[in-house]
Specification:
With about 190 residues, the protein is of the alpha+beta class. The protein contains five helices and nine strands, in the order E-H-H-E-E-H-E-E-E-H-H-E-E-E.
DNA sequence: AAACGGATGGGCT
DNA sequence: GCCCATCCGTTTG
């Protein structure tokens, strides 16, 4: 397992969304270490009406227009945060939303943060995994090839199939098949 | 099993 | 002022 390089993210966003499946997200804090396997993602392209970047650059979405491989974290519904990675190249506002993880390390800590003992409820949604992993808004713009929050490459070949479907929880552009998940995985947000 | 609505506040027209 | 890249408990069929 080694950190993903800048070039991993400096590619077409759909490609990155698929390649991220099977990679590990890992966060080290004074409370302890948590990690999980990325099992579900969604791609948001610059010409996509559902993307935060569709109407151009604003204070909130600036990271998506910046260099690839950085954390884009946004506040939503008055109480939650969601975690994305900027992709493609500088100047193009695109990114990948991480929608679900299969919990790996620090499961007790995740249970404490999420206030539940049900393993399938820990990281099966974009806001859930942010809480379980202890990701905070201060990571906005953080380079994900560095600690304490990193994405690591799974070394071996991928022994799973990728399912492609419509995205979840959006109104415009919902028909675009830009959601990807690991076939048969029990930890995705929704079948 | 599915549908519904409340919580709760920042972003943008 | 309206709209959310959500979640969870409650109600309904």
């Amino acid at each position: 397992m080694k950190p993903l390089s800048r070039s991993f993210f400096k590619k077409p966003t759909i490609e990155v969304a698929k390649s991220l499946l099977g990679c590990h997200l890992i966060h080290e804090t004074p409370e302890g270490k948590t990690s999980g396997i990325i099992v579900e993602t969604e791609a948001y392209l610059h010409d996509d009406p559902a993307s935060h970047t569709f109407n151009g650059k604003t204070p909130r979405n600036t990271v998506m227009f910046g260099p690839p491989g950085k954390a884009y974290i946004y506040f939503t519904y008055g109480m939650y945060y969601c975690f994305n990675v900027s992709t493609n190249k500088e100047g193009i506002g695109e990114g990948v939303l991480i929608r679900a993880l299969e919990p790996l390390e620090g499961i007790d800590l995740m249970k404490k943060r999420r206030k539940t003992d049900k393993i399938k409820q820990l990281c099966s949604g974009p806001a859930k995994l942010v809480i379980a992993m202890g990701i905070k808004k201060t990571y906005l713009g953080h380079d994900l090839s560095n600690p304490p929050l990193q994405i690591l490459h799974s070394a071996g070949k991928k022994d799973f199939k990728i399912i492609k479907t419509e995205r979840i929880g959006i109104s415009t552009g919902r028909d675009l098949p830009h959601r990807f998940y690991i076939k048969g995985n029990e930890f995705i947000s929704k079948k």
